[in-house]
Design brief:
Radius of gyration: 25 Å
Structural class: mainly alpha
CATH architecture of the largest domain: Orthogonal Bundle
Number of domains: 2
Order of helices and strands: HHHHHHHHHHHHHHHH
Number of strands: 0
CATH class of the largest domain: Mainly Alpha
Helix content: over 70%
Length: 325
Amino acid sequence: MHKYIIKRILMLIPVTIGVSLLVFVMLDLAPGTVVDIIGGEMTTEEIAELNHELGYDRSVFYRYFIYMKGLLHGDLGTSYIYKVDVWKLYMQRLPATLQLAGASVFLAIVLSIPLGIKAATKHGGVTDNLSMVAALLGLSMPNFWLGMMLIVLFSNQLGWLPSYGATDGFKSLILPAFTIGTGLMATLTRTTRSSMLDVLRADYLRTARSKGVPEKKVVKKHALKNALIPIITIIGTQLGNAVGGAVVTENVFAWPGVGRLIIDAINQRDTNTVTGCIIMTTVMICIIQVVVDVVYAFVDPRLRAQYASAKTRKKPEKVQGGAAA
């Protein structure tokens, strides 16, 4: 298991190189540079000096090489706009993004898993059909549209909840969390229903029912436990998506997270901030996926047995190789 974790961590190296190079090239192709933003009142000589200082008189690959050289020493660079170390800037915004992502996933888990179980146990009934229609609607609504509709209804018309920012505590979190959580709920409901349907048809559950085990106990203790693997997969994937994909929602609600920071930095052509934030977000998503894989081994005994058998197979191979020699 530890070798698998090390292998996944080492995969971050080519991923980081590819992501950072793509960001540099994409921003270089976009019109304008950060010098156009911060050099408005400078003279021509001062602008030329700033271009030389930031490397804009060289190729994009030269600037990329300089950036990666600093990254090897743990330096994400300094923001051109905010004049602050990108690492510090990212860590200032990260708690708001994690708060929003955690609330969205928690909302999806609390609502969708019971609904998916209910739909599976009432397969073909009214509850099943209504839940699938609701899931289809949740998958079909774009986050930016849903967010704006929620603002119009609950902020502008009813005045119940704030429409932007994070100054009102829990009340500020409700609308953006529900906006992101709607799509997550739809996916998790469908996955829970499908996984539960497969398990509920298994022979060992028929045996449990024939022995007189109550249906609620059959569903909660036996069926749900064995249906958890795909559910955990979706939860881990959706948590990663919520952390890395909250850019649109954070901008709709002016949420002070990493997503809004990235969009502001892109608009201002702040290459260091964009690259550093995307690299750190990529690392976080990869770490979440590794944690999900580790959780598999604790939930599914078959995986634990597979890792154990892999270890025992390697030892005889070494002995045979020595004997053959």
